[in-house]
Amino acid sequence: MSEAAPHLLSIREAGAELRAGRLTASALTEATLARIAETEPRLNAYITVTAEHARAQAAAADAELAAGHDRGPLHGIPVALKDLVDTAGIATTGGSGFLRERVPQRDAAVVARLAEAGAVLPGKLNLHEFAFGTTSANPHYGPVRNPWDTERSPGGSSGGSAAAVAAGSAMAALGSDTGGSIRIPAALCGVVGLMATYGRVSRRGVLPLSWSLDHVGPLARSVEDAALVLNAIAGHDPADPGSADEPVPDATAELARDLAGLVVGLPRDPLWLDVEEPVREACERAVEELRALGAEVREVKLPLLAEMRRMERGRFHRAFLAEAGAYHSRWLREHPDSYGEDVRATLEVVSLVPATTYINAQRMRRLAIEESRALLAEVDVLVSPTTEHTAPTIAEGDPGTRLVRLTAPYDVTGIPAISVPCGFDGGGLPIGLMIGARHWDEVTLCRVAHAYEQATGWHTRRPPL
Amino acid sequence: MSSDRAADVEAQAQLARVRALAETAALPLDEERLAALARRLPGPSPLDRYDFGETEPPLGLRLADERGARADERGAEGHAG
Fold first, then answer.
1. What pLDDT is attached to residue B52?
2. ipTM rounded to 2 decimals
3. How far is CA A162 from CA A110, A198, A292, A421, B28, in A?
4. Catalytic: A157?
5. Is residue A137 within 8 Å of residue A166, measured between CB atoms?
């Protein structure tokens, strides 16, 4: 039997223990709930802990396994949800004060898929209000704290998801990503964050921020764990207009394959610009590791994305966020004082984006997609830092657009991207490496990220909580 | 006109522009918030001055061109010759 505490096992390891009869889903759930109780006073990662719901799900999972009904890799595994994912009968607040009592009648599509896969829900995770920001300093539920240094932000907007996974108070979690909100907190908390191709995962029943940019995806402690969760939630959903009717491959299919012959592109401009030195050094070492693993590394260019960065001063996706202004327009008129000041101020700005600017941004997006698609015909993956810097202090407040400058281009182009741990700065704060692949090629994305992860072992470090 | 005077005229023009936009969007802003928004709101986007040339229609809410391209490929195969 593995000697690790049950809640710190990988999903694959926990599954092996469950199927060998050395562990039960109920015991795994109790270990997770105990870890939540232990860490929450310091992290504030959860808005709602669904202990009784989780116990009932775990008991059912145990009964099914005993009866020979195995739902697959997530059977009996605790997977928590960012609190903008609808759960029938369980409050879903979006991190908002005025939605505090909102109880959906229906599960989001991803929740139904997780339930079908046998996952257990330990609770709903704190986030930046309405996912509209990168600090997760929520004015209504309190700030989420980074497990590596509780005076620091975990990033956001899926800050609770990343903090809980890093601390072991969830084995995996779902987040959402509109400008980087899965990958940024994953990088700042030292875990894996996977944003699949736009349209791969249904958003039905997930509170939107910006419909044409929103993605739902997993955060986990390893690439394999993230890939297993993606496998469970991916697939076409006619109820989501952005969902794509594309074949869904097994994201773990090539985890064992080496990197010989793989071509890595380094888009220095714009995805390595303004990166602070400790982050740059760690990511340069990661590139050398990929080379040592057999990959060919090339410098590549993305001139249009570079021009977009210069034109919009790094705010690649601001014009698209007019969609958030449209979604919030009624609430902003009826409950303006119910928003936190930062979210209200940003909503006011994006509410005034002219229609012509929004449409021109969509025209630019098409060109950017064509440019990145052409580049990814020549190289297999793109590699860069996930963020320009490590976790800021909570007291520093909102660092503005800096945290999204490297991640947002992937939301705009719909390209799948993953952040994996690649080292620490001098203060012991995690650093993330971002990898992007062709549309719909999460198999190669996970293959490269897994090969790097297994060669370096950064993902095995745990915060001192 | 002094530079201070020019800046003041420009600020008043920005405030008037933002007031008109906010009224159109029905944003509930008092004078203090309106002034703060006028200071924060960026000027015209460079996107609106970009020369797109003869481009295809912009994307909608999905990667429609990806699927369109695949359909075209299938169609081309189906109607070869």
1. 85
2. 0.77
3. 18, 21, 30, 12, 35
4. yes
5. no
